[in-house]
Specification:
The structure is a homotetramer. Chain A has about 210 residues and is mainly alpha-helical. Chain A has 2 domains: about 60 residues, Orthogonal Bundle (Arc Repressor Mutant, subunit A), CATH 1.10.10.60; about 140 residues, Tetracycline Repressor, domain 2 (Orthogonal Bundle), CATH 1.10.357. In chain A, about 75% of the residues lie in helices and about 0% in strands. Chain A has 9 helices and no strands. In chain A, α2 packs across α3 and α4 runs antiparallel to α5. Chains A and B meet through α1, α6, α8 and α9 of A and α1, α6, α8 and α9 of B. The first copy, chain A, binds a DNA duplex (21 and 21 nucleotides) through α1 and α3.
Chain lengths: ~210, ~210, ~210, ~210
Amino acid sequence: MISNEEVKERRKARQINQKDRILQAGEKIFARKGFHLATLEEIARDADLAKGTIYLHFLNKADLFVSVIEKKLNILLKKIKEVVREEGPPVEKIRKVTEIHLRFLEQNKNFFKILHSLPGEHKREMEKELTERVIKKNASYLGIIQKLIEEGIKRKEIKPLNPRKLAVILVGMVHSLTINWISCNEKYSLSEDHNLAWEIFWKGARLDSFNKR
Amino acid sequence: MISNEEVKERRKARQINQKDRILQAGEKIFARKGFHLATLEEIARDADLAKGTIYLHFLNKADLFVSVIEKKLNILLKKIKEVVREEGPPVEKIRKVTEIHLRFLEQNKNFFKILHSLPGEHKREMEKELTERVIKKNASYLGIIQKLIEEGIKRKEIKPLNPRKLAVILVGMVHSLTINWISCNEKYSLSEDHNLAWEIFWKGARLDSFNKR
Amino acid sequence: MISNEEVKERRKARQINQKDRILQAGEKIFARKGFHLATLEEIARDADLAKGTIYLHFLNKADLFVSVIEKKLNILLKKIKEVVREEGPPVEKIRKVTEIHLRFLEQNKNFFKILHSLPGEHKREMEKELTERVIKKNASYLGIIQKLIEEGIKRKEIKPLNPRKLAVILVGMVHSLTINWISCNEKYSLSEDHNLAWEIFWKGARLDSFNKR
Amino acid sequence: MISNEEVKERRKARQINQKDRILQAGEKIFARKGFHLATLEEIARDADLAKGTIYLHFLNKADLFVSVIEKKLNILLKKIKEVVREEGPPVEKIRKVTEIHLRFLEQNKNFFKILHSLPGEHKREMEKELTERVIKKNASYLGIIQKLIEEGIKRKEIKPLNPRKLAVILVGMVHSLTINWISCNEKYSLSEDHNLAWEIFWKGARLDSFNKR
DNA sequence: AATGAATGAGTCTTCATTCAT
DNA sequence: GATGAATGAAGACTCATTCAT
């Protein structure tokens, strides 16, 4: 005999599962076709659901799109914030964050494709606020790197250059390597590129007087 | 009295002029709205032409889009190839190329916006070959940098790292700085960032034993 | 201890109560939004029930719509038939019926709004029979007035004009006054208009030779 | 040889013709199905045009709907205003206006069906302003009758009753007769009913002391 | 050559209805 | 009985593309 409570819990579990399936299908299709060419029809089919069901979980196409990104971005940010909270010198943290970032992109290339297409995927006026939300969240990642760099500069480990731009450069390197990896059909391990990126950035940005390892 | 020759030439001139106006309007509108949200109606209006006229010069919307990019890319590539043909050490050429690249992006931010949106602007199957064309041309820029780096490595000026990836990293830095510049509403001179990018890249990539300036 | 009988009765009572709540909610929402813009979702919410429950009592949306009207129409017809059964001259009965009609509309403006929208709320082919039902019932009201007028003519109290059309005219006056009352935001007492309607109709329709009051 | 001017004029003429065909198709289909059940697809088919063409002439479905009504209403109002401008006693004008009104409805029953369904055809919030426009125009007809009645009262030809409500009653009679005529499948001449309506209204509303004709 | 009116395929979104629980 | 999650049919609207003038 199944209690009423249990029934409700099962339903809820199924729903969460369903929402997740939609998000996954969304990630896949949006990555493959971009926002405009992806159709809810196709996403629903991929999630093995009816079109209308998507609207039980999301306001509209744009909301689904943003939710797909936000979900992944939250996971990445959580991982990164964990590293930042650890003890240790900021430079080491930056290295670790870069490593995590690349590993995450390697495992979530669909997400990366969507994220990278974000600025190009112009939205209709009414959908802008949604995009805004994601762009802010994305920017917060840059802010974390920037803070670590500022600390590194304070500790005389990093050259006193514009910390914002140094962060921009580091992230740019990571993204560019990811694009290259994807355009090579992921024939090598992206996270291994971490050493290369770090070599260039660290040798380039460290304060020359700082004790070289 | 106007000769037959002259009439033909004038016509041709007008047509070229017309085509150029469409390309310029396309650059503007595509940059503002992205591929899918830009309408031929609006582009035609901006070019002060009728919608149908666009089809006298371009196959379709995608062709116009790609042509807008190609035209600019050709200009950039021409400038860069000039530098490459000059005498001098490859490292210096790389520096110059980077400088030219940033200056070009500063003066053509519309173009950059479109270029950056390219991976996201997926096309329908039949239009893929068009996009291919641009991606190849864009890649040829990367190839130039790569060759210069290979030479630098041969001359023991640059560390014997993967030249392709070093090129990727350098271009990634440039793009990332450009994105940052645009997201700051272009409040500073982008070409000044050239020094920063070069500082990081060069300090990071030069062979330590190489004579430091 | 509750008897089996009692349990059944309670259930039935609850059901009737439920059905009535749906009818009331329907009256409210249909009046506010019209047939097409009213949603079963909203009606269910207003009746504090689940959407599916409506289908335990009604065939479909159209059936509910028609039932809402029929229920009210039955109440009105019952009241009117009572008056008709009374002793007295037909002309006096007509006056009373008109009075009751206006008072009823005053107290049931939701219903009136729905009724008046009926001709405009065209149904899909398969739902026509439902609408037929209501239209017939509505017509039966007209028939009652007509019969009274016929009698009045026979008794030489009313001019020997087309009794059907006289009935149509009288009902038209009543409806028109009601529309006016609603469009004035019900700022006055509608049933007071009864005197005016009667004055015009009676003075206009009475046989001149008939003893003037 | 056809001049450029001529080409333009022909085009314009064709367009006006086209717009009119859409309006006529709209009148027909809206009358048959009501606002919500009428589809642009069907209207376009009936006008022998493609769906998209409707949008070259009207903003959207609601705009077409309102335009259908407005067009007819303008014609009716024009006719009525002509009568009002004539010389003569107000009572006679009212009689004439009523006659014109009935004749117009007889010849435009589609229009009448739409007009009568108007209050029931609730619109979405954004479409309300459109409906507003029509309701006002429709009300202006009532205003004209009201003014004539006021004059009649001043001239001691009509009883000093509420002129607004007298107008409401007269219009209600006319509408009700029209509904009856339609529900009888238009088997008789509606404009003949004019005499009946006038008989009732005039005998009912005239000041008893006024010289009886 | 140049135009822009006409087209109709394509897609988001809503909501009555069903049915497993 | 009662629920409300899931469905999918239906329709307004947009816009690239065509073609008569």
